Amino acid sequence: MKVIANINFKGGVGKTTITWLLAKHAAEHGKKVLVVDGDAQMSLTIALSIDESSGEFVPGFGNWYENQHRARNRTLLDALDKYDQYVSGKIKHFDFPIDRGFIYQVAKNIDFIPSVTDLYWMELDLFNPENVKGFIQAILGKIQHSEYRPDVVFFDCPPSFTALSYSILSNCTMILVPTNPDVFAATGLRIMVEGLRHRIQPWPNPNVVVFMNKAGYRSDRGLFRETRTFMGFIEEAANELNTSGSSVNFLRDQYIPFRASIRKAISFGGFPEEFRHEIANLWTVVEAQL
Ligand SMILES: Nc1ncnc2c1ncn2[C@@H]1O[C@H](COP(=O)(O)OP(=O)(O)O)[C@@H](O)[C@H]1O
Ligand SMILES: [Mg+2]
Protein backbone atom coordinates (compact mmCIF):
# COMPACT_ATOMS: atom_id res chain seq x y z
CA MET A 1 0.00 0.00 0.00
CA LYS A 2 1.57 3.25 -1.16
CA VAL A 3 0.77 6.54 0.56
CA ILE A 4 0.99 9.90 -1.21
CA ALA A 5 0.69 13.13 0.80
CA ASN A 6 -0.14 16.08 -1.38
CA ILE A 7 1.09 19.19 0.37
CA ASN A 8 2.26 22.74 -0.03
CA PHE A 9 2.08 25.37 2.72
CA LYS A 10 0.72 27.73 0.10
CA GLY A 11 -3.02 27.59 -0.53
CA GLY A 12 -4.55 27.66 -3.99
CA VAL A 13 -1.69 25.86 -5.78
CA GLY A 14 -3.87 22.91 -6.79
CA LYS A 15 -3.36 20.33 -4.04
CA THR A 16 -7.01 19.36 -3.89
CA THR A 17 -7.68 19.46 -7.62
CA ILE A 18 -4.62 17.47 -8.61
CA THR A 19 -5.06 14.94 -5.78
CA TRP A 20 -8.52 14.23 -7.09
CA LEU A 21 -7.56 14.01 -10.76
CA LEU A 22 -4.59 11.72 -10.07
CA ALA A 23 -6.75 9.48 -7.89
CA LYS A 24 -9.46 9.34 -10.52
CA HIS A 25 -7.03 8.61 -13.29
CA ALA A 26 -5.28 5.88 -11.28
CA ALA A 27 -8.67 4.33 -10.42
CA GLU A 28 -9.72 4.30 -14.06
CA HIS A 29 -6.48 2.45 -14.80
CA GLY A 30 -7.16 -0.36 -12.41
CA LYS A 31 -5.73 0.91 -9.12
CA LYS A 32 -7.85 0.68 -6.02
CA VAL A 33 -7.53 4.13 -4.47
CA LEU A 34 -8.48 5.69 -1.18
CA VAL A 35 -8.66 9.48 -1.02
CA VAL A 36 -8.54 11.14 2.39
CA ASP A 37 -9.51 14.77 2.90
CA GLY A 38 -7.09 15.81 5.63
CA ASP A 39 -7.92 19.51 5.33
CA ALA A 40 -10.36 21.03 7.84
CA GLN A 41 -11.30 23.55 5.16
CA MET A 42 -12.97 20.56 3.55
CA SER A 43 -12.49 21.66 -0.08
CA LEU A 44 -12.67 18.15 -1.44
CA THR A 45 -15.53 17.08 0.81
CA ILE A 46 -17.52 20.18 -0.17
CA ALA A 47 -16.67 19.80 -3.86
CA LEU A 48 -17.99 16.25 -3.76
CA SER A 49 -21.15 17.39 -1.93
CA ILE A 50 -22.16 19.88 -4.60
CA ASP A 51 -22.98 19.06 -8.18
CA GLU A 52 -20.88 21.63 -10.05
CA SER A 53 -23.13 21.88 -13.07
CA SER A 54 -26.47 22.24 -11.26
CA GLY A 55 -25.10 23.81 -8.04
CA GLU A 56 -27.20 21.34 -6.10
CA PHE A 57 -26.44 19.18 -3.13
CA VAL A 58 -25.55 15.60 -4.12
CA PRO A 59 -28.13 13.73 -2.05
CA GLY A 60 -26.45 10.32 -1.81
CA PHE A 61 -23.18 11.60 -0.42
CA GLY A 62 -24.80 14.42 1.60
CA ASN A 63 -27.19 12.09 3.40
CA TRP A 64 -24.49 9.57 4.07
CA TYR A 65 -22.22 12.30 5.44
CA GLU A 66 -24.79 13.68 7.88
CA ASN A 67 -26.62 10.54 8.91
CA GLN A 68 -24.19 7.66 8.66
CA HIS A 69 -20.88 9.39 9.11
CA ARG A 70 -21.21 12.39 11.43
CA ALA A 71 -24.26 11.48 13.45
CA ARG A 72 -22.80 8.06 14.24
CA ASN A 73 -19.38 9.39 15.29
CA ARG A 74 -17.56 7.73 12.40
CA THR A 75 -15.45 10.68 11.22
CA LEU A 76 -11.69 11.05 11.00
CA LEU A 77 -11.88 13.24 14.09
CA ASP A 78 -13.75 10.54 16.01
CA ALA A 79 -11.06 8.05 14.99
CA LEU A 80 -8.31 10.45 16.06
CA ASP A 81 -10.06 11.05 19.37
CA LYS A 82 -10.27 7.31 19.99
CA TYR A 83 -6.61 6.92 19.17
CA ASP A 84 -5.70 9.75 21.55
CA GLN A 85 -7.67 8.08 24.36
CA TYR A 86 -5.92 4.82 23.57
CA VAL A 87 -2.42 6.34 23.58
CA SER A 88 -3.07 8.18 26.83
CA GLY A 89 -4.24 4.98 28.49
CA LYS A 90 -7.91 5.91 28.92
CA ILE A 91 -9.04 2.95 26.84
CA LYS A 92 -7.37 -0.39 26.34
CA HIS A 93 -7.74 -0.86 22.60
CA PHE A 94 -7.91 1.36 19.55
CA ASP A 95 -11.04 -0.31 18.25
CA PHE A 96 -12.39 1.88 15.48
CA PRO A 97 -14.26 -0.28 12.96
CA ILE A 98 -13.35 0.15 9.30
CA ASP A 99 -16.68 0.04 7.51
CA ARG A 100 -19.03 1.94 5.21
CA GLY A 101 -19.85 4.40 7.97
CA PHE A 102 -16.24 5.59 7.90
CA ILE A 103 -15.36 5.13 4.22
CA TYR A 104 -17.63 6.25 1.38
CA GLN A 105 -17.52 4.58 -1.98
CA VAL A 106 -17.44 7.33 -4.62
CA ALA A 107 -17.06 5.10 -7.67
CA LYS A 108 -15.63 1.80 -8.70
CA ASN A 109 -12.11 1.66 -7.26
CA ILE A 110 -12.46 5.01 -5.43
CA ASP A 111 -13.09 5.17 -1.71
CA PHE A 112 -13.18 8.41 0.21
CA ILE A 113 -12.77 9.53 3.82
CA PRO A 114 -14.13 13.05 4.20
CA SER A 115 -13.04 15.82 6.53
CA VAL A 116 -14.91 17.67 9.31
CA THR A 117 -14.59 21.34 10.19
CA ASP A 118 -14.03 20.41 13.85
CA LEU A 119 -10.54 19.29 12.82
CA TYR A 120 -9.73 23.01 12.71
CA TRP A 121 -9.59 23.35 16.45
CA MET A 122 -8.03 20.07 17.30
CA GLU A 123 -4.42 21.14 17.30
CA LEU A 124 -5.25 24.15 19.45
CA ASP A 125 -6.66 22.43 22.46
CA LEU A 126 -7.40 18.78 21.88
CA PHE A 127 -4.36 16.85 20.84
CA ASN A 128 -0.69 16.74 21.55
CA PRO A 129 0.90 16.15 18.13
CA GLU A 130 3.47 13.74 19.58
CA ASN A 131 0.67 11.66 21.08
CA VAL A 132 -1.25 11.30 17.86
CA LYS A 133 1.75 11.00 15.54
CA GLY A 134 1.14 7.24 15.17
CA PHE A 135 -2.52 7.72 14.31
CA ILE A 136 -2.21 7.46 10.53
CA GLN A 137 -0.05 4.39 10.78
CA ALA A 138 -2.59 2.78 13.10
CA ILE A 139 -5.62 3.61 10.96
CA LEU A 140 -3.86 2.66 7.71
CA GLY A 141 -2.87 -0.62 9.35
CA LYS A 142 -6.52 -1.35 10.03
CA ILE A 143 -7.54 -0.33 6.50
CA GLN A 144 -4.83 -2.53 5.03
CA HIS A 145 -6.35 -5.51 6.80
CA SER A 146 -9.90 -4.65 5.81
CA GLU A 147 -11.86 -5.50 2.69
CA TYR A 148 -11.30 -1.92 1.46
CA ARG A 149 -7.54 -2.40 1.19
CA PRO A 150 -6.35 0.15 -1.41
CA ASP A 151 -3.27 0.04 -3.62
CA VAL A 152 -2.70 3.76 -3.22
CA VAL A 153 -3.83 6.23 -0.56
CA PHE A 154 -3.95 9.93 -1.48
CA PHE A 155 -4.01 12.47 1.35
CA ASP A 156 -5.14 15.97 0.53
CA CYS A 157 -3.24 17.89 3.22
CA PRO A 158 -4.00 21.31 4.70
CA PRO A 159 -1.72 24.24 3.82
CA SER A 160 -0.32 24.15 7.35
CA PHE A 161 1.40 21.92 9.83
CA THR A 162 -1.37 20.39 11.95
CA ALA A 163 -1.38 17.40 14.29
CA LEU A 164 -3.04 15.42 11.51
CA SER A 165 -0.64 16.51 8.77
CA TYR A 166 2.25 15.72 11.13
CA SER A 167 0.94 12.19 11.40
CA ILE A 168 0.32 11.90 7.63
CA LEU A 169 3.78 13.19 6.72
CA SER A 170 5.42 10.88 9.23
CA ASN A 171 3.88 7.88 7.51
CA CYS A 172 3.81 8.52 3.78
CA THR A 173 5.73 6.97 0.93
CA MET A 174 5.85 10.15 -1.14
CA ILE A 175 5.34 13.85 -0.52
CA LEU A 176 3.90 15.33 -3.70
CA VAL A 177 4.22 19.09 -3.98
CA PRO A 178 2.34 21.10 -6.60
CA THR A 179 3.90 24.50 -7.22
CA ASN A 180 2.83 27.42 -9.36
CA PRO A 181 4.91 29.66 -11.62
CA ASP A 182 5.41 32.50 -9.17
CA VAL A 183 8.29 34.25 -7.51
CA PHE A 184 7.63 32.67 -4.09
CA ALA A 185 7.52 29.06 -5.23
CA ALA A 186 11.23 28.22 -4.96
CA THR A 187 11.63 29.89 -1.54
CA GLY A 188 8.43 28.24 -0.32
CA LEU A 189 9.75 24.84 -1.39
CA ARG A 190 13.05 25.38 0.45
CA ILE A 191 11.32 26.48 3.63
CA MET A 192 8.83 23.66 3.56
CA VAL A 193 11.20 20.78 2.83
CA GLU A 194 13.84 21.98 5.32
CA GLY A 195 11.17 22.64 7.93
CA LEU A 196 9.57 19.23 7.53
CA ARG A 197 12.89 17.44 7.62
CA HIS A 198 13.80 19.06 10.93
CA ARG A 199 10.42 18.84 12.59
CA ILE A 200 9.46 15.31 11.63
CA GLN A 201 11.72 13.07 13.65
CA PRO A 202 12.67 10.47 12.77
CA TRP A 203 12.34 11.72 9.18
CA PRO A 204 10.93 8.79 7.21
CA ASN A 205 12.88 10.07 4.21
CA PRO A 206 10.11 9.89 1.67
CA ASN A 207 10.61 10.96 -1.85
CA VAL A 208 9.67 14.61 -2.28
CA VAL A 209 8.30 15.01 -5.80
CA VAL A 210 7.60 18.50 -7.12
CA PHE A 211 5.71 19.48 -10.24
CA MET A 212 4.35 22.68 -11.73
CA ASN A 213 0.61 23.29 -11.85
CA LYS A 214 -1.00 26.29 -13.57
CA ALA A 215 1.93 26.42 -15.99
CA GLY A 216 1.64 29.14 -18.65
CA TYR A 217 1.38 27.10 -21.82
CA ARG A 218 -0.13 27.39 -25.27
CA SER A 219 -0.08 24.57 -27.76
CA ASP A 220 1.20 26.89 -30.52
CA ARG A 221 3.86 28.63 -28.40
CA GLY A 222 4.84 26.05 -25.80
CA LEU A 223 5.71 27.05 -22.24
CA PHE A 224 5.69 30.76 -21.49
CA ARG A 225 9.11 32.23 -20.82
CA GLU A 226 8.05 33.33 -17.35
CA THR A 227 7.00 29.81 -16.44
CA ARG A 228 10.33 28.46 -17.68
CA THR A 229 12.18 31.00 -15.54
CA PHE A 230 10.30 29.97 -12.41
CA MET A 231 10.89 26.33 -13.26
CA GLY A 232 14.62 27.13 -13.31
CA PHE A 233 14.37 28.62 -9.80
CA ILE A 234 12.55 25.54 -8.53
CA GLU A 235 15.14 23.26 -10.10
CA GLU A 236 17.89 25.23 -8.34
CA ALA A 237 16.08 24.95 -5.01
CA ALA A 238 15.61 21.21 -5.52
CA ASN A 239 19.31 20.74 -6.33
CA GLU A 240 20.33 22.68 -3.21
CA LEU A 241 17.98 20.66 -1.03
CA ASN A 242 19.42 17.47 -2.47
CA THR A 243 22.96 18.45 -1.58
CA SER A 244 21.84 19.10 2.00
CA GLY A 245 20.34 15.67 2.57
CA SER A 246 16.82 15.69 1.15
CA SER A 247 15.56 13.73 -1.78
CA VAL A 248 13.72 16.20 -4.01
CA ASN A 249 12.81 15.42 -7.57
CA PHE A 250 11.43 18.24 -9.71
CA LEU A 251 9.44 16.86 -12.65
CA ARG A 252 10.26 19.53 -15.19
CA ASP A 253 8.34 17.86 -18.03
CA GLN A 254 5.23 16.77 -16.18
CA TYR A 255 3.63 20.19 -15.77
CA ILE A 256 -0.11 20.83 -15.74
CA PRO A 257 -1.12 23.89 -17.77
CA PHE A 258 -3.34 26.67 -16.52
CA ARG A 259 -6.80 26.10 -18.01
CA ALA A 260 -9.94 27.69 -16.66
CA SER A 261 -11.95 24.56 -17.40
CA ILE A 262 -10.28 22.77 -14.48
CA ARG A 263 -12.57 24.63 -12.09
CA LYS A 264 -15.24 22.07 -12.69
CA ALA A 265 -12.85 19.16 -12.47
CA ILE A 266 -13.99 17.81 -9.12
CA SER A 267 -17.28 16.02 -9.16
CA PHE A 268 -18.71 12.57 -9.03
CA GLY A 269 -18.89 12.69 -12.80
CA GLY A 270 -16.38 11.81 -15.48
CA PHE A 271 -12.80 12.81 -15.98
CA PRO A 272 -12.11 16.22 -17.63
CA GLU A 273 -10.65 14.88 -20.85
CA GLU A 274 -8.75 18.10 -21.67
CA PHE A 275 -6.43 17.22 -18.75
CA ARG A 276 -6.12 13.53 -19.53
CA HIS A 277 -2.79 13.70 -21.31
CA GLU A 278 -0.99 15.76 -18.66
CA ILE A 279 -2.47 13.91 -15.69
CA ALA A 280 -1.62 10.58 -17.32
CA ASN A 281 2.00 11.72 -17.81
CA LEU A 282 2.24 12.94 -14.24
CA TRP A 283 0.76 9.71 -12.89
CA THR A 284 3.13 7.53 -14.94
CA VAL A 285 6.17 9.24 -13.41
CA VAL A 286 4.71 9.45 -9.90
CA GLU A 287 3.73 5.79 -9.92
CA ALA A 288 7.19 4.75 -11.11
CA GLN A 289 8.69 6.49 -8.08
CA LEU A 290 6.34 5.12 -5.45
N1 LIG B 1 -4.24 23.90 -13.77
C1 LIG B 1 -5.14 24.78 -13.34
N2 LIG B 1 -5.63 25.74 -14.17
C2 LIG B 1 -6.54 26.63 -13.74
N3 LIG B 1 -7.05 26.67 -12.50
C3 LIG B 1 -6.61 25.75 -11.61
C4 LIG B 1 -5.64 24.76 -11.98
N4 LIG B 1 -5.43 23.96 -10.88
C5 LIG B 1 -6.21 24.44 -9.90
N5 LIG B 1 -6.93 25.51 -10.31
C6 LIG B 1 -7.89 26.32 -9.55
O1 LIG B 1 -7.19 26.97 -8.50
C7 LIG B 1 -7.99 27.03 -7.33
C8 LIG B 1 -7.25 26.38 -6.17
O2 LIG B 1 -7.10 25.00 -6.41
P1 LIG B 1 -7.12 23.94 -5.23
O3 LIG B 1 -6.97 22.61 -5.83
O4 LIG B 1 -8.30 24.18 -4.34
O5 LIG B 1 -5.79 24.36 -4.45
P2 LIG B 1 -5.29 24.01 -2.96
O6 LIG B 1 -5.91 22.71 -2.58
O7 LIG B 1 -3.81 23.95 -3.11
O8 LIG B 1 -5.73 25.15 -2.08
C9 LIG B 1 -9.29 26.33 -7.66
O9 LIG B 1 -10.25 27.29 -8.02
C10 LIG B 1 -8.94 25.45 -8.86
O10 LIG B 1 -10.05 25.21 -9.71
MG1 LIG C 1 -7.03 22.26 -0.88
How does the SSE layout of this entry go?
Elements: E1 2-6, H1 15-28, E2 33-37, H2 43-49, E3 50-51, E4 56-57, H3 59-70, H4 76-87, E5 104-107, E6 110-113, H5 119-126, H6 129-132, H7 135-144, E7 152-156, H8 163-169, E8 174-179, H9 185-199, E9 207-215, E10 217-218, E11 222-223, H10 225-243, E12 248-250, E13 256-257, H11 276-289
Parallel strand pairs: 1-7, 1-8, 2-6, 2-7, 8-9, 9-12, 9-13
Antiparallel strand pairs: 3-4, 5-6, 10-11
Helix pairs in contact: 1-11, 9-10
Bound molecules: adenosine-5'-diphosphate and magnesium ion (MG).
Residues 11-17, 43, 213-214, 256, 258-260, 262-263 line the site of adenosine-5'-diphosphate.
**End-to-end span in angstroms?**
10 Å
The biggest sheet amounts to: 9 strands, mixed
Fourth-tier CATH superfamily name: P-loop containing nucleotide triphosphate hydrolases
How many domains in all?
Answer: 1
Plain-language structure description:
The chain has 290 residues and is α/β, with parallel strands linked by helices. The protein has one domain: P-loop containing nucleotide triphosphate hydrolases (Rossmann fold). It has 11 helices and 13 strands. Helix 1 packs across helix 11 (276-289). The longest helix is centred in the last third of the chain and has 19 residues, at 225-243.
